Amino acid sequence: MKAVQFHEVGGPEVLQYGEVEQPTPAAGQVRLRVAASAYNAADNGMRAGFLPIPIQLPHVPGYDVSGTVDAIGEGVTGLTVGDAVIAFLPMDRDGGAAEYVIAPADAVVAAPTSIPLADAAALPSVALTAWQALFDDGRLTAGQRLLVVGAGGVVGKYAVQLAKRARAHVIATASPRSADAVRAAGADQVIDHTDVDLLDALDGQVDVLLNLAPIEPEQFAADVAAVRDGGVVVSTTAFMATPGDESRDVRAATVFVLPNRERLTELVALVDDGALTVEVTRRIPLAELPALHAEGAAGRIAGKVIVLP
Predict the structure, then answer these.
(1) How far apart are CA 301 and CA 10, in angstroms?
(2) Per DSSP, which regions of 150-215 are E strands?
(3) What pLDDT is attached to residue 196?
(4) Whole-angstrom Cα distance, residue 24 to residue 100?
(5) CA 164 to CA 157: how far, in whole Å?
(6) What's the farthest any 2 CA atoms get from each other in the chain?
(7) Which of 18, 189, 283, 304 lies 20 to 30 Å from 208 when distance is taken between CA atoms?
(8) Residue 289: which H helix or E strand, with range?
(9) What is d(CA 293, CA 279) in angstroms, rounded to the nearest whole number?
(10) Cα→Cα distances 308→89, 91, 138, Å
(11) In terms of Cα–Cα distance, which of 212, 257, 251, 213 is closest to 233?
C-alpha cells in the first residue's frame, strides 16, 4: 500500500512517499481503508522532534482519520466491514497518511452522514480540543462570558460554535481575514487584534479566557486582567505556561487533548443535527503531504487541510 512515513526526525524532507506493508489488525483492532487523514500542527512537531510524544520509527503521521472498516481483529464487536467511521488515533502509533491504517476498536465511532466521509477526517482531535478546553478545563456554563483569543483558527471556530450552543456570551479576537467566519460561527463580539488593544476593547471582564494563539508570554500574562476573580484561563499552547492569578483565585489550565469515544460520538451527532459545521479549506493527494509539511513549518497553512490517499 502507499503511505508517507519518516525514518528519522527532521525537516519536511525526511518524509518519504512510497510502498509499505499493509498492516493486519490484532485483537481489539480494526483496519480502515482510509478516505482521508487530516493535517495537524502536532504532526509537524512530531516529525521535527519538537513534541515529546514517544513514537516508533519509521512513523506514519496523521492521527485524525476517516474511512471504512476493512478488516476486524479478534474480539471486536459492534463494527462491521464496510462501516463508515472516524477516529482520533493514538498519537504514538502509525497514523492515517496511508491507504490503510490500524485503529483500536474503542477509538472508532460512526462517521457523520451529512457530510462527505473524507471531510469528516477534519473533525476528531480539533473538535475534541475545543470541547475539552471549554467544558472540561474551563467549566463553561450557560450565561457566562467567554473570551476566545485566536478564534479564527480551526479550534477557535469549533469553540465559538460549541460555546454559543451552550448559551454563553462569546467575545472573540480575529484578524480581518477571519472576522466574518468567526461571526458566522456565532461570536457576539469580534475584536480585531491587529487594530485595537484587547483589554481596551472589552466591555467588562469574562468568566473564561481561552487562548489559542501563539502570543508572547508577557502579553498572555497581561490578558489575565480580563478574567474576573474566581475565573479561569485555558490555553492550548503547551509550549508556554498558562498564566493565572492566585491572588484573585484565577485558575490556569493547559489543554492536552485526550481521546474520548463518547464525546466524539456526541460531536458527530451535532454535525448531523446541523449544530456544528465541519470546515475543510483544502484537499490534497497523499503524495503532496511532504510539501504540506513544508508549508506548515513555514507557518503558511490557514484552515483545515485533509489528505486523500
Answers:
(1) 19
(2) 169-174, 189-192, 206-211
(3) 87
(4) 10
(5) 11
(6) 60
(7) 304
(8) helix 289-297
(9) 20
(10) 17, 19, 35
(11) 251
Peptide bond into 217 cis (omega under 30): no
Instruction: Cell 491572588: give the residue.
Output: 247
Residue 164 and residue 135: Cα distance in Å, rounded?
12
Q: How many residues does the chain have?
A: 309
Grid cell 470541547 is found at 131
Helices (H), 171-260: 179-185, 198-201, 217-223
The separation between CA 281 and the C-alpha centre of its own chain, rounded to angstroms, equals: 14
Distance separating alpha carbons of residues 159 and 128, to the nearest angstrom: 10
Query: Alpha-carbon distance 154 to 176, whole Å?
Result: 16
Distance, in Å, from the CA atom of 92 to the CA atom of 89, rounded to the nearest integer, reads 9
pTM of the predicted protein model: 0.95
Whose grid coordinates read 512513523? Answer: 59
260-292 per-position pLDDT tens digit: 999 999 999 999 999 999 999 999 999 999 999
**In the chain, what is the straight-line distance between the N-terminal and C-terminal CA atoms, in Å?**
10
| Predicted pLDDT of residue 33 | 98
Sites in the chain below the pLDDT cut of 70: none
Q: Which residue shows C-alpha cell 498564566?
A: 243
pLDDT per residue as tens digits for the range 135-159: 999 999 999 999 999 999 999 999 9
Cα 105 to the chain's mean position, in Å? 21
What Cα–Cα distance (Å) separates residue 186 from each residue in 117, 177, 226, 230, 269? 25, 16, 21, 26, 19
Sign of CA dihedral 93, 96, 101, 106: positive
d(CA 51, CA 166): 33
The backbone torsions φ and ψ at residue 43, rounded to the nearest 5 degrees and listed phi first, read: -60, -40
Cell of 53: 510524544
Which amino acid, one-letter code, is at 83?
A: D
